[in-house]
Specification:
The chain is mainly beta. The protein has one helix at 2-20; strands at residues 28-40, 44-56, 59-68, 74-85, 91-103, 121-125, 127-139, 145-164, 171-190. A hairpin with a 6-residue loop joins strand 8 and strand 9 (171-190).
Length: 191
C-alpha cells in the first residue's frame, strides 16, 4: 500500500512540475488615443477617442470612450477588438467597435415652452455606436506606434418632441430617429 501511495505522490509531483515549465504568454496593457475626421451626408465633424485594453500575440481587446461632434454631440462608449497582420514593426490591422452612443446634445437644440404652446419640449435618447475598418501602424520604440486608419461608423439616437396640437388642443408627441452613417479617418498614437 505504501508503494502505491509513494508512486501516486511521485507521479503527481512530476506532472505538476512539468505543467509549471510551460511557456506562458503574458497579456500586455495598451492605450490607443486618436483624433478622427467624420464625413457623412449631413456634415463634416471631428471626434476624439481613447481605447485602453490588453493585447496578446496579434490580438487586442479593450474598452473605448469618445467625444463625437457629428451633428449632435455624443459620447460613444464601446468595446474594441483589433487584429494585426505581419511580423515586422510596421503592420496592417483591422478593427471593430460596438457599443452605446450616449447623447450630450448642445443646449441650442433644446426646445423651450412658449406662451402659445406651453407643451413645447423635446428630449434626446441614447442609441447605438458602431465603427469598423482597417489601418496601418508605424512601429516605434517600446511597442509604441503611430496609427492611421480608415473605416465606417454609425451612431444612432432618438428625439421625442412634445407640443400642443393646434387643431385639437391636446398634448401630442412625435418621435424622430436619427441614423448617422459616416466615413472615419483616424490619426492616433498607441503606447
Amino acid at each position: 500500500m505504501k508503494k502505491y501511495f509513494l508512486l501516486i505522490t511521485l507521479s503527481a509531483g512530476i506532472s505538476f512540475s512539468a505543467a509549471a515549465q510551460k511557456k506562458t504568454v503574458n497579456y500586455k496593457f495598451g492605450s490607443i488615443n486618436s483624433i478622427a475626421l467624420l464625413n457623412g451626408e449631413n456634415s463634416t465633424a471631428a471626434a476624439l477617442q481613447t481605447v485602453n485594453g490588453f493585447g496578446k500575440n496579434k490580438w487586442f481587446a479593450g474598452i473605448g470612450l469618445g467625444l463625437d461632434y457629428y451633428l449632435y454631440r455624443s459620447i460613444p462608449v464601446f468595446a474594441d477588438v483589433r487584429r494585426e497582420f505581419g511580423k515586422k514593426r510596421n503592420k496592417f490591422f483591422a478593427y471593430a467597435d460596438a457599443g452605446m452612443n450616449i447623447q450630450w446634445v448642445q443646449s441650442e437644440f433644446e426646445m423651450k415652452p412658449v406662451i402659445w404652446n406651453p407643451n413645447l419640449r423635446n428630449k434626446f435618447h441614447n442609441g447605438i455606436y458602431t465603427d469598423a475598418g482597417f489601418g496601418f501602424s508605424v512601429g516605434m520604440k517600446n511597442n509604441q506606434a503611430f496609427i492611421l486608419s480608415l473605416g465606417h461608423s454609425m451612431k444612432t439616437m432618438k428625439e421625442t418632441r412634445g407640443y400642443t396640437d393646434w387643431r385639437t388642443g391636446q398634448p401630442t408627441e412625435d418621435i424622430y430617429k436619427f441614423n448617422f452613417s459616416r466615413v472615419v479617418l483616424k490619426f492616433g498614437w498607441r503606447f
